[in-house]
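User: I've been going back and forth on whether these two constructs are worth ordering. Before I decide, could you fold them both?

Assistant: Sure. I'll take them in the order you sent them. The first construct and its structure tokens:
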Amino acid sequence: MAKKTSVEKEYTVEDKLSTLYQLQSMLTEIDKIKTLRGELPLEVQDLEDEIAGLETRLHNYMSEIKEYEASVMAQRNRIQDSTALIEKYKSQLDNVRNNREFDNLSKEIEFQGLEIEFSEKKIREFGESITNKKAEITHLAETLEGRKADLIQKRGELEEIVSETKHEEEKLREKAKKLETAIDPRLLTAFKRIRKGARNGLAIVYIQRDACGGCFNKIPPQKQMDIKLRKKIIVCEYCGRIMIDPELAGVEI
């Protein structure tokens, strides 16, 4: 245990900062991979939801057509019933005993005639509704097929990207874990906390144009000098990110 402590003490602040920046670079690459995947799964999900909605609408349209067809059949049955009653009342006209009976039968015949006209009108309306709904189904089916083709394409793209990036991500994660073992636990915890709170996931940044590379607030000359000396870990007073000089980050100014 004592030997391990002595080894840990050999790590300079510069070593710690360099290791942290390497870790940050690897985690940034992993973030890019996750972002690349993150867009496609959302597109796939949107297409799946849209297809489910179109299929539901298609099912509802087909149910409506069945209801219209049932209504047409009901109206045709009413026409048959009315036609039979008309024939019945007409046959009874030959046996009427007075004008009152004749008038009553005539009114019944007229009423059933109106019922037939009403049913024929409803049949025409239902027929038009069926025709319109079938046209909508045809258009909807074409749209649905197009969306299904898009979904197949997007799923293929997603599977390809996952396949291509999975190995790369695994390698990066393995390297990141190895680097983490070389970092002081308290410093690593602080690094992860800063990274979690940063919008772009950057916990350690280098100076850019005399400013913090994270929030771009100006850094006083004396603090810049302290950062370049690499004798202590310095954080930005505005955003809390750890700051290093460009040379340590391998950046030429």
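The second construct, handled the same way:
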Amino acid sequence: MTDPPTGQLIFIEDDAALRRMLATALERRGWEVVALTRAEEALERLDGTELDADVVLTDLFMPGLGGMELCRRLRELRPEIPVVVLTAFGSLDTAIEAIRAGAWDFVTKPVGVDALSIALDRAREHRSLRREVRQLRKEIQGWAGGDLLTGESEAMRTLRGLVDRVAVSEASVLIRGETGTGKEVVARAIHARSPRAGRPFVALSCAALPEALLESELFGHVRGAFTGANERRPGLFQQATGGTLFLDEIGEMPMALQVKLLRVLQERSVRPVGGDREIPIDVRILSATHRALEEAIEEGRFREDLWFRLNVIQIDLPPLRDRGHDVLALAQRFVQEFAQRPGCVVRGISPEAARRLLAWSWPGNVRELRNCIERAVALTTREEIGVEDLPPRVREMASSSAPATDLAAGGFVALAELERRYVLQVLDAVGGKRGEAARILGLDRKTLYRRLQEWAGPNDPPSGDL
């Protein structure tokens, strides 16, 4: 009986009996073993696309190319693959020479299978960790390079320029935008381009927790502060020390906590729940909201002094419907992301499906588009996403709306006109109730009212009721 799959191993040993014995023993432990007699053959196969490996296991002294030289060559050719060396000479000098040549570990002969298995498992885990680190570096480079701020519309070029300027500052930033426009993405991009990039980025949604838990999450608590507080726990302000704390949906924070947050920002220190001393903090605050905080201030639901503290710099994110052909650039990026899954054959989007994507108004913004593409990639059996793979509301856009009639006739409609028609269609469907229409569209009422005023003629009456 063999163990669960462990990984792929290239095993180079010129002694046929030892090679067969160890290969059989390691296969029983889950390794997929490629047994070779010459180091030259391993180099040839690893140099192309014919063979990959999680670990290389090689004898040290062999006819032709020896294990030491193989380590040196692999360090240049495939540095990501760890090499474990077998040697009958277990002296310290031999071990040091092997490590200097590029070996990750060594095992002496006569070989104990248990000891060898442990060494190979550690080498495989080492490669796995290196792979994860490379992926994290890629993601960080993506944030810093603007990969997450995809798009070449004027709105996105302006946004990227603003993010670059804001990032080097220590000022608090308030990011505003409709639900799904990517407020946390922008916060991460600011952090990744800032001098704090090597320190933690900690995010919290103020709408996700009740007031008591939110206070403990932000400021931490001492042991015995409340029932169930069996040990001291640092809050997110302490966890983000030296880095950035992102407070999403800041408009949902209870008034009592707003007072405490204001004090933290003024004093640059926190007092854990149940504690009796202040703890200094070094954190940059980024916050976000989809609401008009000015209205919340007028209604007494948000403190004006806290708003001034948080809103030193304001960034307004454009809705997806105002970003033109960025829709297709984002859609293709999501296709590439989801196409990485095993068995996926999709590579792109058909022209007709692309037209439907452009015609839809995306009330859920980038988040809705991402979900749409994930669904389409999961459903399609072809290399291109077709109209039939899109959600019904997007798929039926052409047959149920005026903008699609123009497309069917061979023409195109400006996105601003598509937006106007869709908003009016929703408003009509809810009987002119602007509050309900704003909720469906993902807008605040003030934004909807402003757009209706822009679209109305000088003698037109206001559209709908509040």
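Notes on the second construct follow. The radius of gyration is 30 Å. Residues 322 and 416 are 7 Å apart (CA to CA).
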